[in-house]
Amino acid sequence: MLLPATIKFLKDLKKNNDKSWFDAHRPQYEAAKKNFEQFIQAVIDKQGKQDSSIKELTAKSCMFRINRDVRFSKNKSPYKTNFGASINRGGKRSIYAGYYFHCEPGESFVGGGLWMPMPPETKKIRQEIDYCFDEFKKIINNKKFKGIYGDLYQGEDVALTRVPQGFEKDNPAGEFLKLKSWLAMQSIKDSELTSEGLVKKTVAAFEALQPLLAFLNRALDE
């Protein structure tokens, strides 16, 4: 579970996103960061028993820095207002699909998948979905997957308006071939963040996601 103090720090940071406040509250940040790291490690240890591709990972290697890169952004706030961890085969910067946990009061979620792969990897994923659409449908229509995620995320920010070139316009898999990212997400309430069942809930979400990750990563290996 995450501690109330961890959630409070993130809420306070959102109201006071500047270096002087952050420096004055660095002990609170370090404690919150450590708490999140312990939570992520507990999740890795449990899910790693079922997914050998992540069992050697450490939470520290999966967590993102809280400092924002403001060089090309209009938003010059120096810090992120969340803790995030990408638990991927090969590390958080790898090309492979993986698990993700996002802790941000009011906007927390658990899930994962593959975010905006490069064109060669995108082509491989689309070909795999086209060739093995029956298998893909079984994965995303699985009762456990549907119960937790409902469906893949299909927002305008991750989808083309038309079926990509090289595939028939009426391809049965068209709605999934149009995707540029293949993601599944489940929202988490603030009250759940500090509940004793958070690790169990997160691992259950990762278990339901694992077959999809295996499908996506198989495509990338081919």
Write up what this structure looks like:
This protein is an alpha+beta fold and 222 residues long. Helix 1 (4-15) crosses helix 3 and helix 3 crosses helix 10. It has a single domain, classed as BirA Bifunctional Protein, domain 2. The model has no long low-confidence stretch (mean pLDDT 96). 47% of the residues lie in helices and 12% in strands. It is built from ten helices and four strands; from the N terminus they run ααααβββααααβαα. It has a four-stranded antiparallel β-sheet.
Distance between the termini: 38 Å
Helix vs. strand class: alpha+beta
* CATH architectural designation: 2-Layer Sandwich
Q: What proportion of the residues is helical, as a percent range? A: 40-55%
Largest sheet: 4 strands, antiparallel
Provide a count of the helices. Answer: 10
The fraction of residues in strands falls at: 5-15%
Number of domains: 1
Number of beta strands: 4
Rg measurement, Å: 19 Å
Examine the coordinates and then state which fold CATH places here, giving the name of the CATH topology.
BirA Bifunctional Protein, domain 2
CATH class: Alpha Beta
Bulk shape: globular
Reading the helices and strands in chain order gives HHHHEEEHHHHEHH
The mean pLDDT is 96
Strand order of the largest sheet: 1-2-3-4
Enumerate the spans where pLDDT stays under 50 for 5 or more consecutive residues.
Answer: none
Blueprint (SSEs and pairs):
Blueprint: H1 4-15, H2 19-24, H3 26-47, H4 59-62, E1 83-88, E2 98-103, E3 108-114, H5 119-131, H6 133-140, H7 143-149, H8 174-177, E4 182-188, H9 190-193, H10 198-221
Antiparallel strand pairs: 1-2, 2-3, 3-4
Helix pairs in contact: 1-3, 3-10, 5-10
